[in-house]
Fold this protein.
Amino acid sequence: MNFSSFVALKYFRAKRKTGFISIITFVSIAGVAIGVTALLIVLSIFNGFESEVRSRLIGNDAHIRFRKFWTEPISNYKELEKELANIDHVSGVSPVIRKEAMLQGRRNHPVIIKGIDPKTAGEVTDIDKNIISGELNLKKVPYEGREVPGIVLGKELAMQTMALDLGDPVYVVTMPSDASIFTQPKLTEFIVTGISEIGFYDYDKIMAYISLESAQELFDLGDNVLWIEIKLDDYRLASEISAKLEEIYAYPYQTLTWYEQQKTLYNWLELEKLLYFAVLSLIILVAAFNIISSLIMIVMEKTKEIGILKSMGATPKMIQRIFLNEGLIIGFMGTGIGTLLGYILLFLQVKYEILHLPQDIFYISSVPVDMQLMDFILVSSAAVFLCFFAALYPAYKASKLNPVEAIRYE
């Protein structure tokens, strides 16, 4: 331990002539600890919600969409599926048709029809895991003496159209691609075979799933699809694999990653996290002002000792380091206590789910938590830096004390 650190630690542990200084010092430590705890808890909960949103959206849309420009139909999709499946880090591929239409049940509602291949859809999305009623049966089923294809509705969509019962008939209303103002809408009958719930309201209120063959017939696409969904063994590689695919296939093919599909939402989540970090850092900043007050009063109380140290040969830089180290001691203590307390509280939430949420609103039973090492590092670094910055002015003033003036009346 060097001289500056030794003296700083001695000053920190020494009894104060004025007890008020000690109170301010401990208030400063408590303020830093509370600020660090609050920041870690809020960021970890925010990470948890972000992770929930991302997993639900990716579970519905896959990691990469491989398609043509302007979403032109792909005719050779079966050959492309085989090729894409052999790309590094690709764990699943599945063809998709997705278009807008109108769903007619007991009430009408706009709908996005997604035609999928039930054999491979489960390899790239969680559609089979999201069925809360019925089953993922998109084949033709008997209904009133005829064969009618099955359809799976999103939970909110089923409520909007009042088609909540399995076996209910619904109609998908579409317009032919070459329609004119005199063309009659096309009505295609389906039977509700399942209800799905992704847990994301904007999807559950508008998504309906039918077989790939039914979608090809419904939208007059022949033996074509609109894109191929790709799942990776690590979603974080989406940008890298996407660039590789565009390099291999080039025009007229293009790719769309999971991030690009919901870019506005993810950008907003990142901005919100940054704003929370900035706002809650003000708690630590308030504690930093307490550190300034505490150190200034310590400098005033230790004026004689500072003068003696200088008369014995201590340089201004050594005096400055003493009070900088004292500020860092407060910072490290507050940060350490806050980090430990934050981790304990977050761990208890993860293990015991202490804070609950109403499932009918949030689709999850408890407050989600995702502790990330980088958040702990950033918060701790920011707290220590603010404490160091707060100690600069008192340390500078202490270094400028004239030793003769400091001990003249002693």
